[in-house]
Structures are given as structure tokens and as C-alpha cells.
Design goal:
The chain is an alpha+beta fold. It contains five helices and four strands, in the order αββααββαα. The longest helix is centred in the middle third of the chain and has 35 residues.
């Protein structure tokens, strides 16, 4: 009787160890990386006087190429949103200072500037990439996916130039010759964009 109980106890311990081992095998681990040392821009976006940087991320991509493409789009989207916010802030400041009527030519100028900036952002260059290949074990299955990060850069001067061109376009299309208030408004915008860093 005691022998039978001892055997049952041993079997119980073995089964428990198998169960624990099985649980331990579930999870994720990094099996490959693009760089041995993670780049600093993953935690802090770099600053440079002549370039605006943005970081995009794509997690759990089945293919690295797809992850890179999605990460690029994420960075461009973030850049467009951030620059649009700055344009609106600069626009509102200039409008308040000059007393521009937002329902006249002001709205057309604002929307034109935003559209022009978004077009410029789409031409951003990829500066760097960092990816990790992850192995995932779950329920006896093994899967692999990639976490991808990209650093995108846009020359500050390119942004300034594109916005300046848009202001000239708006002046030709929406500003009446001799309208001093409108000219003052455009001048305020031109001055503000010339000094903007967009970071």
C-alpha cells in the first residue's frame, strides 16, 4: 500500500515538473537584431539644426520588409501631425496680430500651408533602421515576427522653402493688390516660418 502511494507521489511530482517546464517554454525571446547595441534615437529623438527627425514603429510584423514599410508610414504620419500643429499655431498667432478675418482669405492660406507641408513630409528620407526578430512559443507552436523602428529625417530648409512657395502662391491667388492688411499677414507668416525649427 505504501509502495503504491509512493509511486503515485513520484508520478505526481513528475507531472508537475512537466507542467512547469511546459509553462516555462511559453513566451518570447529575441533571436536576432539589426544592431548589437540599440541606437539612442529609440528613446530620445535626435535634434539637429538643419533636420527634423521623427521615429516610426511597427510591432509584430510577420515580415521585416512589411514592418519597415509600416514604420516609415507611422513616422511620416507623426511628422505630418506635429508640423501641422506648429503651422496652425504660427498661423493663429499671425492672424491675431494682424486682425485677419479667418473666413476670408485666411482659411485658404491655412489649408494651403498644411497641404503643402504634408506633401513635403511625404518626401522624408529614412536615416536609420533598427529591428528585432522575436521568437514566440505558445501552446506547442513556434512563431516569429519583427519589431521594427525607423528614424526619418526632413531637411528644415526644405520645409521652410515649401511653405514660402505656398505663401507666394496664396498671395497671387487670394490677395488683392494693395491690401495692406493681407500683405502684413503674409509677412508675419513668412517671418515666423523662416525662424521655425519644426522640432
Amino acid at each position: 500500500m505504501k509502495k503504491a502511494m509512493g509511486l503515485k507521489f513520484v508520478m505526481f511530482v513528475v507531472c508537475a515538473m512537466i507542467a512547469v517546464t511546459g509553462c516555462m517554454s511559453m513566451g518570447q525571446k529575441t533571436v536576432d537584431v539589426s544592431h548589437n547595441i540599440k541606437p539612442g534615437w529609440l528613446t530620445k529623438t535626435p535634434k539637429r539644426s538643419n533636420t527634423v527627425f521623427f521615429v516610426g514603429t511597427r510591432s509584430e510584423a510577420r515580415r521585416m520588409e512589411d514592418g519597415e514599410k509600416d514604420a516609415r508610414m507611422a513616422a511620416i504620419g507623426e511628422a505630418a501631425e506635429a508640423i501641422q500643429t506648429q503651422i496652425i499655431s504660427i498661423y493663429e498667432s499671425a492672424r491675431t496680430e494682424t486682425g485677419t478675418d479667418d473666413e476670408s482669405y485666411g482659411t485658404a492660406i491655412r489649408e494651403g500651408l498644411i497641404a503643402r507641408a504634408k506633401g513635403t513630409v511625404r518626401g522624408a528620407k529614412q536615416e536609420e533602421i533598427y529591428w528585432e526578430k522575436i521568437e514566440e512559443r505558445q501552446d506547442g507552436e513556434v512563431k516569429y515576427f519583427y519589431n521594427v523602428n525607423v528614424l526619418m529625417g526632413i531637411p528644415t530648409e526644405e520645409l521652410r522653402r515649401s511653405l514660402s512657395l505656398e505663401l507666394k502662391k496664396q498671395a497671387e491667388e487670394n490677395i488683392t493688390a494693395g491690401d495692406k492688411a493681407a500683405q502684413d499677414f503674409l509677412g508675419k507668416l513668412e517671418e515666423a516660418f523662416a525662424d521655425a525649427t519644426f522640432d
